[in-house]
Amino acid sequence: MSALTPPLSDEQRQALQEAARFRLLADNVPVLIAQFEVSSNRCQYANRRYAETFGFTPESVLGKTFAEIIGAEAAALIEPAVARVAEQGRAATYERTVVRPDGQTHHLEVNLLPHLDEQGCAVACFVLITDISKHRRTEAALRESEARLEKFLLASVEGIVFHHQGHITDANPPLCALTGYRRDELIGRFVLDFVAPEEREQVQAVMRDGRELRYDSAILHRDGTRIPVELIVRTLVRDGVTLRMNIVRDIRDRVAAQARIRHLAHHDPLTGLMNRAAFMERLQHSLQRAGRGEERLALLFIDLNNFKRVNDSLGHLKGDQVLVTVAERLRACLRGGDRVGRFGGDEFVVLLDGVRGHGDVLAVVHAVLSVVEVPVDTDGRALSVTPSIGIALYPEHGTDAHALLQHADTAMYEAKARGERQFQFFHPEMAQTAYADLVIESQLREALARGEFELYFQPQVEPETGRLVGAEALIRWRHPERGLLTPDTFIAVAERHLLMVPLSQWVLRQAAEQARAVQRAGLPPVPIAVNLSHLEFRIDGFADTVARVIADTGIPGAWLQMELTERMLMDDIQGATATLQALRRLGVSIAVDDFGTGHTALAHLTQLPLDKLKIDQSFVAGLPHDRGAMAVTRAIVHMAQDLGLRVGAEGVRHRAQWEQLQVWGCHELQGELVSPPLSASDFLAWAQAHSGRIPS
What is the rounded distance in angstroms from the CA atom of residue 535 to the CA atom of residue 442? Predict the structure, then answer.
């Protein structure tokens, strides 16, 4: 130092050290850094990476304008962002794509940060540029959900820490913010003190081996919070001292997203319960443990009765509210070690561990029955659903997960067949029934394809004259091995396996064709009655299906009659009324079949668009000697007459029944005394032979 040069003060030395430190930091971070004067757009400072990227040195780039450094075309593109910084004093961020001399395309992320004077006016603009080409290439191969959450932050806003042989020598403000410590509290501390205990061995190995790499780890916040981070490790030399630089990137969002993905992989997204795969895995573990310890388990298969009606009438949002409430109630009523899962739709499965006997199972079953049937409040509307529960026990009913589940499912269908709010333990006979059910289902599908079904017709006559006034269409199955089968052998299977809809549509079309055949035979046309299934009647647009059949066959709507049960009407009175009105507009008449055995509210008889009540044959069978049957039947006949409805009786087998119904004023009779069900050709012959004749 020259004798004429005054010695530097401590403050000056410290300033020089800070400047050197800043230069070291700025030249080694993977970011291009520069500062431009706002008034002239000329460079006042640039780190080595920035200068060399554009073909300059840190010295030669000084005083150059944006246009002189990056080219006039690029400068014009970024002018709006530069103006925002200069005029509004606000930061701006944008991305640029540049093609290097070697022909490679690079993606640059640029941050423009204003330097404001005391009056808040921008006097300079800091430029921070990060080459994010590698990130962009990597993003294309990552999962979409992780790509949205993974953020490649600029080095200037990420934590940076220097250490020498494990002792911290420097740290930037973002690192301090991430850890909750001031810079002076970090300097001199051992770096492993801030690493999560379970990660220290890995971090220490990286330090010991001097590797340069990128890996996931975790650090500790001042308050003890564990923060997952990505560490980017580099080695550099400053003043002859080898330092390690760590860029510390906060990846809490990414880890949370991965945890969410793992959760969704094992849980139902609507209710939060275990999904099928996770539940079956848990069941398998429980079975293995139970086998070693000779424990007993129980599996409950729960199905909500008529839940489809909630979705169809009120919409899926209301249905989802019901499912969420049911899931919460199931969780609340189970024992501590029990597990519940949702298998989709309205099906839930419960695993009971440590079962000592039937008493333990029944206690849970009764709890489930009591909480599930409680009405659910959805936006002020009380909705009720009832469960059917099938129960399979380990080891009595199966020793593997799939067998237990299948047997519990089979028992549930048995419970459902017995009515609402029922439960049923599995027994071996059910497996045989289920197998027979499976065989019939397969054969039914083949029968539909091969046209093995036939339609029979049972005449309906006027009691005073015996004149034909209608006929009921009855389906038969011409089984290739078992002969002619009546509906009681296959209809229940068809309804359970959704085969009833195509079957019913076939019946409807054949009935319309038969009505046309009666007219073509020169006989007075009579309505052909078709029994509707619950499934068919509830399908949206059923009336449109009937309209298409009428149009295709060219018959008047009055030649068809739809027969429904009381239960079908009462399940959804509002929806049923709308469908019946649509059918009436087509000219189709409506009859209530098996009247007196259901639960029709009498007030609804005046509201529903009905044409006829058919007295159930169980009442007709008691005539004329059973006092109860006499009273009920007479009341139905007189009530129908007073309401202006036709009334018919089925199951008439004896002359005394005929005469009694005739005395009361019954309009139509049907049964073996009139005629058994007849094939289509025999029905036409019968109609011609009995045309206008009074039976003897």
Answer: 20
